[in-house]
Amino acid sequence: MSLTTILMTVFSTTFVYAAPLIFTALGGTFSERSGVVNVGLEGMMIIGAFGSTVFNLTFASTFGSLTPWISLFIGALFGLVFSLLHAIATVTFRADHIISGTVLNLMAPALAVFLTRVLYEGKGQTPVINQSMGSFTFPILSKIPFVGKVLFTNTSLIAFIAIIVGVLCWYFFFRTSLGLRMRSVGENPMAADTLGINVVKYKYMGVLISGFFGGIGGAVMAQSITLNFSASTISGQGFMSLAAMIFGKWNPLGATGAALFFGLAQSLPIIGAYIPVLSHVNSVWFQIAPYAITIIVLVIFLGKAVAPAADGQNYIKGK
Amino acid sequence: MHTKSLKGLTIPLVSVLAGFIVGAILMLIFGYDPLQNYQNLLVGSFGGVYSIGETLRNMISLILTALGFAVASKAGFFNIGGPGQYLIGWFGAIVFTLKFSYLPAIILIIGALLCGALAGGLWSMVAGILRAYFGTSEVITTIMLNYIVLYIVNFAVKSWLAGKGSDSSPNIAAKANLNTPFLQRITDNSTFNWGFFIALAVVGLVWFYFNKTKSGFEIQAVGLNESASQYAGVNVKKTIITAMLISGLLAGLGGAIDGLGNFQNISVSNNLPNVGYNGMAVALLAAENPIGIVFAALLFSALQIGGLSISVYSNTPSEIVDIVIASIIFFVGIKYAFELIAKKGWFKRKNREEKGGAEK
To answer: Dihedral sign, CA of B211, B213, B214, B218?
Structure first.
């Protein structure tokens, strides 16, 4: 295998695995920046994966090759509606954020597999989708020598979109007044309240946007990797995204970078087999590497991760 | 005191009821018979000595992983590492039993349980040490440690314990089985085992630890306010590590007991064991009270074991049970909503009384 081909494989598998994590980790930043801890990302992904797969299977003949993209949007809506549960529980009814997030993680697989059995003759998994997200070659960029081949040929379009969305989220949080208000609600809700910012509204927005992105994350997973929905479609990616968000210090750019890193790490076992020097190493080391490296990097370079000051606290007006 | 404990029970009971109602509504919407299914659930979990044996056996690991989560949580840490600590405990116990099978039964069993618990404890302590000395988020490290242990155990089972072409270790010697012939006889061959009594004893120990020992008090103090505890002379670093160690010991013991009492071997697995996550839910349902955990685990276990027979006797998806469980915990979580309702009701009564007084 030539160097170009190896690098191409490294980048494309990294992007494929990173895309769902990027979206979901970005979702996490919205919720937590507005002060609502979100351990329920896994659940939001599951619902998004379910919704998008059902839509894809039902409407593939109507929308043709556009189906996976519309499915992403449907998955996002499913995630948004589902996250309403978290918003109502934590913002309106002052529930412990961890309890509520755990409820999402318990409820999502139960509900989604229940509905799958109702819809697909008692089976615990859906049929495989016909219209999936294939690989994409950028029209002009791929003509660039070397780089074009490595980065822009047969790659994952949705991952590039995810990175752009990550930059936009950063812009939202740190360059717009809306973003500043949302951050202020997560740092000091009482001060924000005194300045006339509607704390409840921003917290709801934060949680619902995180559901929207978590839903996309799950949908991307189903549309580009597993290609159907079952109980094991989402297995830990939500927790990985949560870790990416903390790794990225609650910053959209950091979260995107961390998610890309996890994507690279997850592609290691696949790539390892192709690289001559590494092919003799037992695959268990590649499987462990991403997680071990994360811990080591975290310990050496990042130290204490500081969450938004009022993250996880319920704001009770006048108290 | 009496009224306080009554009040403390009201919310879980109302939540359980509300959870069952949500399940019933869902079943009605999709055309399943809720009464028939709930009856099957009850029969499946308590309908005979066999079912009761299964339900009690399933409680063991729920209790221990829940206690593990609760100890870390009291110290202010969110230990998502339960699944990994349970798995490594299970692995440790099986390895010990297989490698030292010549030991007399009682020593073999004690050694295996200790080995499993210790494996879980040391594994979890890694997260504790990193948290104490580097401030590394235990949420991330425990998640990462979960996956690391999953792959290590799979690798070790496949290349070290299992025979060629097999994905499972050999079964342990019959003398190490906690599910003894005596217990099998009296419970109609269920998997009920002596681990149940160990779990109950551990509940007592943990209760004693929290309420009667200095170390247990320090854990709760650090959980309430880390800087205040430091100022009061508590060694915060040591306390953090102790809390994570105990947390992992408990989850590891859960895995060890399930290994000896239920599975008898260990296999390669694609996913982390669910029981670790379920233990979290049990602890939250019981508000992290050790005694409450026993009852929450009983409810949880009955729903899980009874749920198996729902799909056997009807075409209702057994996931309905998990929906009921999730709803129950949701309602426990939003207890403020119940307080609001109760308060409004109380206000109405009070208003009426005041009105009545004015008319006089």
So the answer is: negative
Q: Tokens 């299977």 appear where?
A: A57
- A155 DSSP β-pair partners: A136
- Residue B343 predicted with pLDDT over 80: no
Instruction: Among A100, A113, A287, select the one facing B333 at the smallest CB separation.
Output: A100
pLDDT digits (tens, 9 = 90+) for A135-179: 888 888 888 888 888 888 888 899 999 999 999 999 999 999 999
Using CA coordinates, name the residue in chain B closest to A102: B281
Q: Least CA distance to A91: which residue of chain B? A: B334
Q: b/e for A73-96, b at 16 or more Cβ within 10 A? A: bbbbbbbbebbebbbbbbbbbbbb
Which CATH number do you get for residue B273? 1.10.3470
- Structurally, how many domains does chain B consist of? 1
Is any Cβ of chain B less than 8 angstroms from the Cβ of A288?
A: yes
Confidence band, pLDDT 50/70/90 cuts, at residue B4: very low
Point out the residue among B144, B319, B335 whose CB comes nearest to the CB of A114: B319
B41 touches chain A (CB under 8 A): no
Instruction: Specify if B343 maps to a domain.
Output: no
Query: Is-contact A244 A262, C-beta < 8 A?
Result: yes
Query: How many cross-chain Cβ pairs, A to B, lie less than 8 Å apart?
Result: 140
Residue B32 included in any domain: no
The predicted-structure confidence for A254-312, as pLDDT tens digits, reads as follows 999 999 998 888 777 777 777 777 667 777 887 788 788 878 877 886 656 678 888 88
Asked, for residue B63, whether it belongs to a domain, the answer is yes
H-type helices in chain A, by residue range? 3-33, 41-63, 67-87, 97-119, 147-152, 157-175, 177-187, 189-194, 199-221, 237-247, 252-272, 283-297
B193 belongs to a structural domain: yes
**Residues of B in Cβ contact (< 8 Å) with A89:** 330, 333-334
- Maximum CA extent, chain A: 66
Is the CB of A94 inside 8 Å of chain B's CB atoms? yes
**CATH class of residue range A3-302:** mainly alpha
List chain A domain ranges.
3-302
Amino acid at the residue B319:
E
Domain that holds residue B83: 59-306
